[in-house]
Write a structure and sequence with these properties.
381 residues; alpha/beta; Quinone Oxidoreductase, Chain A, domain 1; Rossmann fold; 2 domains; seven-stranded mixed sheet; six-stranded parallel sheet; 12 helices; 28% helix; disordered N terminus
Length: 381
């Protein structure tokens, strides 16, 4: 590193990154400089980045994020440089990027709940920085912020060591990218958040990438019946190929009434994979006695849902939040990879199209229109 009076940013390599600068204009591919990794960090050349509804929330500034922001939180790539003290990774390793780069030292981490890491929740996510409170991205001489410790819509990124989980070179990196967000979020909501017992009835609201992964989680959890709910017929058709036993077209019927009829009075578990107030309320209304509504999709900041507390208490029902499927990335990502390699987990089938970084707005348009399950951005295109 240069030690003189000229700042390192002047010498840092430039690259293309998708940057959101304000809510008044779309994100743009921008020339960004990347500082080298500090202690406990690695530099990763991004090879694939999935475009998620969470990115759309950010694009629309429905969540509070610091600007300017290098976007993207689902991705994979190859380690190109390691910082001091890094022991689990080496240059050339293929990695899945995790937006839960747990510190390993806070109360939640020590209790085995890295998805609730206090450092991530208090520093990395809201402030758009890494552990030390600073950023590695610069636009000219101004810092740009990280998005929840990943920023995968970029040719390269720097992440904490715990935010990069090694994967074998025999796993395609576009599939590996999805195992960094939508796969653990959906599968994990069933297996790790809900801990759904075998033989349960399960309902999944929303058949996007996360919802289809929740359907697969219900298959892996040996649910007796899996009901998929969506507004689009082609997404319901997809849900059948991923393991749904029944489907409900919410554009044509009362979804709550239909689910209650199919399940004989309500479902044991309902997974809201949309993130709207209306779907959260529907998930509660679909429950059986003793049933559990699992809120997986994330609504805009400040959105409030309603339920009847007395009815919930009398029926001994539960409402549970699921953050990242309660995943433990270092342990659970390899498990998901093994399921994928054995053919028990469909991941390639989630990818509808691939685009260069410059087409990120088209990717959002496709998502809004429901034309895709998952678009993968390839920074090399």
């Amino acid at each position: 590193m240069y030690e003189g009076s000229i700042p390192w940013a002047y010498y840092a390599p430039s690259m293309r990154s998708v940057v959101l600068s304000s809510g008044d204009e779309p994100p743009r591919v921008t020339d960004v400089r990347l500082d080298p990794p500090k202690a406990g960090e690695v530099r990763v050349r991004v090879r694939a980045a999935g475009v998620c509804h969470s990115d759309l929330h950010v694009r629309k500034l429905e969540w509070d994020v610091p600007l300017p922001l290098v976007m993207g939180h689902e991705g994979s790539g190859v380690v190109t440089e390691v910082g001091a003290g890094v022991t689990s990774l080496s240059e050339g390793d293929h990695v899945i990027l995790s937006w839960e780069p747990a510190c390993g030292r806070c109360r939640a981490c020590l209790a085995g709940r890295p998805s609730q890491c206090e450092v991530c929740a208090g520093v990395v996510w809201p402030k758009g920085v890494l552990y030390d409170g600073t950023t590695r991205f610069r636009i000219g001489d101004r810092p740009a912020h990280h998005y929840i410790g990943v920023s995968s819509f970029s040719e390269e990124t720097v992440v904490p060591e715990t935010g990069a989980i090694r994967v074998g070179t025999n796993v395609p990196l576009d599939a590996a990218a999805l195992m960094g967000c939508c796969v653990p979020t959906g599968v994990g909501a069933v297996l790790w958040t809900a801990r759904m017992p075998p033989g349960s009835t399960a309902v999944v609201i929303g058949c996007g990438a996360v919802g289809l992964c929740a359907v697969q989680g219900a298959v892996l959890g040996t649910a007796s019946r899996i009901v998929a709910v969506d507004l689009l017929s082609h997404k319901l058709d997809a849900a059948k190929t991923f393991g749904a036993t029944d489907v409900v077209d919410a554009s044509a019927v009362d979804a709550v009434a239909a689910v209650r009829e199919i399940t004989g009075g309500g479902a044991d578990f309902v997974f809201d994979c949309i993130g709207l107030v209306s779907t959260a309320e529907q998930s509660i209304a679909m429950l059986s006695l003793g049933g559990t509504a699992v809120i997986v999709g994330l609504a805009p900041t400040g959105a409030m849902a309603r339920f009847e507390p007395r009815a919930l208490a009398e029926a001994e029902q539960r409402i549970v939040g699921s953050n990242y499927g309660s995943v433990r990335p270092a342990l659970d990502f390899p498990f998901l990879v093994d399921l994928y390699r054995s053919g028990r987990l469909k991941v390639d089938e989630l990818i509808t199209t691939r685009r260069p970084l410059e087409e990120v707005e088209q990717a959002f348009d496709d998502m809004i229109a429901g034309r895709v399950v998952r678009t993968v951005l390839d920074p090399s295109l």
